[in-house]
Amino acid sequence: MSHAADLPLWAAILVAAFLLVGAGLTLIGSWGFFRLKSFYDRIHAPTLGTSWGTGSIVIASMICFTMLQSRLVIHEILIGIFVTVTMPVTLMLLGRAALYRDRAEANPDVPAMDPPKGSLAVSGEAEPAAGQDATQT
User: Fold this and answer.
1) Is the dihedral of CA 68, 69, 74, 78 positive or negative?
2) I need a labelling partner for 60 at 20 to 30 A (CA). Which of 15, 21, 33, 73 fits?
């Protein structure tokens, strides 16, 4: 395999641009994880930052090694697919587990539970008292 000095200028610029975008997105996701206060707020930032950041870095790797080896190198797509699929699913499962735990412990900082679909509470009307017909006024 050749060294990176053998890359054509246009490919080196393209690889550098994708690496900077990927590193920037990953940094933004990490910064969001650091700055946001609650666990539920922190779930979103690293999911987007890491997924899109990894995708950009994978594209840079594909361009670099395709040019250095003079053949199409696409096996990095598997890395991108695995990260893009597993990161959001993993954080969604962690969020649901934390929500279940916090509701079981009656934590006051937990997000409110959505009312069931078809409930009168959704429309803002009061529910009828027990034993009272909903049509009576």
Assistant:
1) negative
2) 33
In contact, 124 and 115? CB cutoff 8 Å: no
Residue position matching structure tokens 């590193």: 23
Q: Residue 32 class from Cβ within 10 Å (0-12 exposed, 13-18 middle, 19+ buried)?
A: middle
Residue type, 13: I
Residues 57/18, Cβ–Cβ less than 8 Å: yes
Q: Which of 115, 107, 98 is nearest to 39 (CA)?
A: 98
pLDDT in tens, the chain (137 residues): 557 778 889 999 999 999 999 999 988 888 888 888 888 778 877 777 777 888 899 999 999 999 988 888 888 888 888 887 888 788 889 888 988 888 888 888 777 777 667 655 544 555 555 555 555 55
